[in-house]
């Protein structure tokens, strides 16, 4: 049998395999480069980058819950300038495509960061994290109103020459509407899901466990929600989809692809096992061999 | 990395000592570093638990950890049997800087913060002139490893109820020393943050060089998630306890 072909095409960005670490769960790659060569990965997705440095929330910022974990990091990052000079310059020597996750408080901040990332010529794509509170709209997230989302994507698309992926928030009534809004705004692809908003209370202290009170839920427990949302989005858009949410094994990744995803991102699983991504790549390969699949296109969206 | 449980001992009501062997870079361990241990083989517990390395035997190629069973993860660890294997990452973080010249040293430990100070005391003892070790526990039930510390220096115990050693907190035992501000050149400490803060206050105006080991809830344990930060005194970007720490110069971090 032919060797299975794991390459995927994300709006012109060709990846040697469909597996990438999810934003915020892999730093800028340095830490995991001690465990394996980053070029093993389809791409590296870095932490959210903002115009100015963000300090993030008070601690505790993370806690394990049944089925996953909650985090309220608060998009802590050293800001655009340092990310480019200290992190992307290094990462660009690792022979792996780079996707920069961009966040902001205003449309203008998103545009400035995305434009600068495109102009620095170190990154291969931008992923817009639209789960941030919009300062102008009283702190409601950009990712929950289709009109606000479409406008934002349009504005960023105008100034950013790189492939633009929009990372959707699952905390919405209709994921299909949001996916379509991103597509109409000119997105080259969508990625989903970001974390679901959750909370845990320490009943002895009668206080929330996280200093921020609420936080984002990720991990195995969110996978059925995530697969369902990829499936619903895939039904209504024609741009490529990157699926994520609770992927821990190759089988999980295959499930997302069958729901319509072209590629996948792996977040929380990196914490459980730093070798999660390379292991998942091997397991996908094995599944393809066992099932005589030569190209991932054969299974993509097969349940739609 | 997979290590094996070579020995497991119950030290007191809820405190357990595990000796681990098997492939691990024992030779590179610094006192104050930790291992991040996976809990179970499935995905019921997706976050590893950080536990300090308390002792290392570089000849026999094994290390010891001591833990208090406080929740699901540490309870699972306390239920391991000899021969069980554990998935550990490490050694992680930066340990205590070991000075190369003699000078009077005070080591202060509190509760489950005591174990990594044993490895530190063993490494410091051949170098320093005078090693004073002050260990604080809640009560007699809570005390462990007193015999192991005894040969390493001048050991004082303080318990909150006075059931062993002096009655009261470790800071009270420090203040009871005549000219305590001038007695030591170096101070190393690990324990509850409230204790570290109180000790820092006692010495912050003096010339004493101090190092403290901090704790925070962790997700990745390797510096990738920014879950475990503490704030630095100069208000620069926050420091990651798992990567830049867990040991910090006490003048550098806000406690
Ligand atoms: C650098 C470092 C070294 C440590 N060394 C030791 C040691 O040598 N011996 C020892 O007994 N304990 C040590 N701890 C504390 C130990 O990690 C926690 O007690 C343990 O994680 C609790 O997990 P659990 O599942 O038993 O408790 P649970 O309460 O069920 O834990 C729930 C969640 O909270 C987290 N958590 C709870 N308390 C702590 C804490 N104090 N620090 C970090 N995470 C916490 C757990 O990781 C988990 O995600 C250390 C912590 C750090 C950061
Ligand atoms: C600690 C942590 C930090 C995260 N930071 C970001 C971030 O900066 N930007 C972003 O778009 N998503 C962020 N996420 C969301 C993940 O990228 C991912 O969408 C989510 O965790 C679901 O995938 P998982 O279940 O595989 O973790 C973060 C998640 C975690 C757990
Ligand atoms: S636990 Fe992830 S950065 Fe420290």
**Radius of gyration of chain A, CA atoms, in whole angstroms:** 18 Å
Q: Structural class of the secondary elements of chain A? A: alpha/beta
Overall strand count of chain A:
16
Fraction of residues in H or I helices of chain B? 10-25%
Number of helices of chain A: 9
List the helices and strands and how they pair.
The complex is a heterodimer of chains A (304) and B (255).
Chain A: E1 8-10, E2 13-15, E3 19-21, H1 30-33, E4 44-49, E5 62-65, E6 68-71, H2 80-91, E7 98-102, H3 107-120, E8 125-129, H4 146-159, E9 164-167, H5 175-185, E10 189-192, E11 196-199, E12 201-202, E13 207-208, E14 214-218, H6 223-236, E15 241-244, H7 250-258, E16 263-266, H8 269-272, H9 276-290
Parallel strand pairs in A: 3-16, 4-7, 7-8, 8-9, 9-10, 10-15, 15-16
Antiparallel strand pairs in A: 1-2, 5-6, 6-14, 11-14, 12-13
Helix pairs in contact in A: 3-4, 4-5, 5-6, 6-7, 7-9
Chain B: E1 2-12, E2 15-21, E3 34-37, E4 49-52, E5 55-57, E6 62-68, H1 72-78, E7 85-92, E8 105-110, H2 115-124, E9 131-137, H3 146-149, E10 154-159, E11 166-167, H4 170-175, H5 180-183, E12 186-190, H6 193-203, E13 209-213, E14 229-230, E15 239-240, E16 247-249
Parallel strand pairs in B: 8-9, 8-12, 9-10, 10-11, 12-13
Antiparallel strand pairs in B: 1-2, 1-7, 2-6, 3-4, 3-7, 5-6, 13-16, 14-15
The site of FE2/S2 (inorganic) cluster has 12 residues of chain B, from loops.
Description of the molecule:
The complex is a heterodimer of chains A (304) and B (255). By secondary structure, chain A is of the alpha/beta class. Chain A has a single domain, classed as Alpha-Beta Barrel (TIM Barrel). In chain A, 32% of the residues lie in helices and 20% in strands. Chain A has helices at 30-33, 80-91, 107-120, 146-159, 175-185, 223-236, 250-258, 269-272, 276-290, and strands spanning 8-10, 13-15, 19-21, 44-49, 62-65, 68-71, 98-102, 125-129, 164-167, 189-192, 196-199, 201-202, 207-208, 214-218, 241-244, 263-266. In chain A, the strands form 4 sheets. An 8-stranded parallel sheet of chain A has the order 3-16-15-10-9-8-7-4, with helices on one face. A 4-stranded antiparallel sheet of chain A has the order 5-6-14-11, with no helix packed on it. In chain A, strands 1-2 form a two-stranded antiparallel sheet. The longest helix of chain A is centred in the last third of the chain and has 15 residues, at 276-290. With 255 residues, chain B is of the alpha/beta class. Helices cover 16% and strands 32% of the residues of chain B. In chain B, the strands form 3 sheets. Chain B has a 7-stranded antiparallel sheet. The longest helix of chain B is centred in the last third of the chain and has 11 residues, at 193-203. Chain B is globular, with a radius of gyration of 18 Å. The A-B interface holds A 24-27, 30-32, 34, 47, 53, 55-56, 59-64, 66, 68-69, 71, 73, 76, 78, 219-220, 248, 268-274 and B 38, 43-48, 87, 89, 216-230, 237-238, 243. The structure holds flavin-adenine dinucleotide, flavin mononucleotide (FMN) and FE2/S2 (inorganic) cluster. Flavin mononucleotide (FMN) sits between chains A (22-25, 47-48, 71, 73, 75, 101, 129, 167, 194-195, 216, 218-219, 222, 244-247, 266-269) and B (219, 225, 227).
């Amino acid at each position: 049998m032919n060797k299975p072909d794991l390459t995927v095409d994300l709006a012109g960005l060709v990846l040697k395999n469909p597996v990438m670490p999810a934003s915020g769960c892999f730093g800028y790659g340095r830490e995991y480069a001690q465990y394996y060569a980053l070029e093993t990965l389809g791409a590296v997705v870095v932490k959210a980058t903002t115009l100015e440095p963000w300090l993030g929330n008070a601690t505790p910022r993370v806690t394990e819950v049944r089925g996953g974990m909650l985090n309220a990091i608060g998009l802590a990052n050293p800001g655009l300038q340092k990310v480019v000079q200290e992190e992307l310059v290094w990462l660009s020597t690792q022979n792996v495509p780079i996707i920069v996750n961009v966040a902001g408080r205003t449309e203008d901040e998103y545009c400035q960061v995305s434009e600068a990332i495109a102009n620095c010529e170190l990154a291969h794509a931008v992923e817009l994290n639209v789960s941030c509170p919009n300062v102008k709209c009283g702190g409601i997230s950009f990712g929950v109103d289709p009109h606000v989302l479409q406008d934002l994507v349009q504005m960023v698309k105008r100034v950013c020459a790189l492939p633009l992926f929009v990372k959707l928030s699952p905390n919405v009534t209709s994921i299909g509407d949001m996916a379509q809004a991103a597509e109409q705004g000119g997105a080259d692809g969508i990625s989903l899901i970001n974390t679901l908003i959750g909370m845990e209370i320490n009943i002895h202290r009668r206080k929330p466990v996280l200093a921020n009170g609420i936080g984002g839920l990720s991990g195995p427990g969110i996978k059925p929600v995530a697969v369902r949302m990829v499936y619903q989005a895939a039904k209504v858009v024609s741009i490529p989809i990157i699926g994520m949410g609770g992927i821990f094994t190759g089988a999980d990744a295959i499930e997302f692809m069958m729901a319509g995803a072209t590629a996948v991102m792996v977040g929380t699983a990196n914490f459980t096992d730093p070798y999660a991504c390379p292991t998942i790549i091997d397991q996908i390969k094995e599944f393809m061999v066992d099932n005589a699949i030569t190209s991932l296109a054969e299974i993509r969206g097969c349940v739609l | 990395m997979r290590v094996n449980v070579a020995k497991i001992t119950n030290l007191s009501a809820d405190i357990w000592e595990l000796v681990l062997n098997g492939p691990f870079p024992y030779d590179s361990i610094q006192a104050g570093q930790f291992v991040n241990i996976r809990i179970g083989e499935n995905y019921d517990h997706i976050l590893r638990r950080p536990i300090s390395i308390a002792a290392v035997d570089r000849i026999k190629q094994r290390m010891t950890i001591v833990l208090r069973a406080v929740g699901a993860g540490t309870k699972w660890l306390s239920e391991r049997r000899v021969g069980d294997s554990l998935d550990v990452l490490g050694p992680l973080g930066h340990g205590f800087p070991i000075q190369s010249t003699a000078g009077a040293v005070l080591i202060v430990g509190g509760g489950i913060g005591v174990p990594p100070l044993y490895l530190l005391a063993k490494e410091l003892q051949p170098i320093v002139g005078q090693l004073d070790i002050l260990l604080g526990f809640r009560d007699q039930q809570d005390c462990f490893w007193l015999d192991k510390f005894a040969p390493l220096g001048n050991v004082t115990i303080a318990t909150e109820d006075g059931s062993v050693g002096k009655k009261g907190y470790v800071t009270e035992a420090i203040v009871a020393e005549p000219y305590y501000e001038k007695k030591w050149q170096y101070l190393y400490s690990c324990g509850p943050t409230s204790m570290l803060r109180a000790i820092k206050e006692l010495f912050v105006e003096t010339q004493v060089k101090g190092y403290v080991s901090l704790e925070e809830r962790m997700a990745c344990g390797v510096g990738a998630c920014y879950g475990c930060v503490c704030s630095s005194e100069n208000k620069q970007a926050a420091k990651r306890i798992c990567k830049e720490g867990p040991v910090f110069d006490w003048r550098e971090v806000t406690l």
